[in-house]
Description:
Blueprint: E1 3-8, H1 15-22, E2 28-32, H2 51-56, E3 59-60, H3 73-89, E4 93-97, H4 101-109, H5 120-133, H6 135-145, H7 147-151, H8 158-171, H9 175-178, E5 188-195, H10 199-216, H11 218-226, H12 244-247, H13 251-273, E6 280-283, H14 288-303
Amino acid sequence: MEKIVVLSGPTASGKTSLALSLAKVFPFEIISADSMQVYKSMDIATAKATPEEQAQVPHHLLDVVEPWESFSVSDYCRLADTAVAEILSRGKIPLICGGTGFYIKALIEGVSAEGPGKNDAIRKKYEEMLSRIGPQALWELLCSKDPARAEAIHPNNTKRVIRALELMEETGKKASELAFYTNSPRYHALYLALDYPDRESLYKRIDLRVDEMMREGLSAEAQTILDLHLPSDTPAMQAIGYKEFLETATPAEASELIKRRTRQYAKRQMTWLRGVEGACMLNACSSKESLLEVTCEKISAFLSL
Length: 305
């Protein structure tokens, strides 16, 4: 079974910086595992690696499709598998880097199109609940039960939200575990995850990043994407950093809303990561030097097995 290294973590946790440092030590090529960085023209809001950063080490699965095009977890696995094979053929090592746990798990474990049939009684219950509490509250219910699945569904895509809730009630398992994954690992993976025991330090990093995004021209990028007039349930429109400008009166208000939603998203990502079996949690609050040293030790040990 081929070896790959995974570096995950919540948004703004320092994944890109650490990945670039690791690529100076190991013969890595980076495969993005970010459900929003696959879209072209969505650079600032998704914190995509800059052209200068991409020039330091080969990057894969960035700028794959246009914002109006669909892109599924199956599409990701197909393209990532190809990238892994190409990297290995060059004698290099794939470094899967990103915060979309849904994609990473599917790549490692494989996806299956099969799933339980529909349960009309359960589905009707959630359809009635939707009419009472609305799509946002129903999506938040899914967030509380299965943050990984909720991450991949727009709140307005009520059919998929209801299907996920239906699957969980029918089977007693999380939809993210049941609907897509098989039980046959496809790669021997070292799963590294950046952890922030002090959550406030992560939130400060998020705030600083959003401030920097605003300075880099996020408002203009958001206007470019919003001018496409994409339906609200288009996958690309799930990205935090665009619709917030429609929901607020000033850029300053939009910035604050982006910060708040990004913190909420990071919290869901941490919940997911702490539930990943076998994941090696790295203390991202430690110094850069210490973090790099510990990470290199773990990778070296893994590669020598």
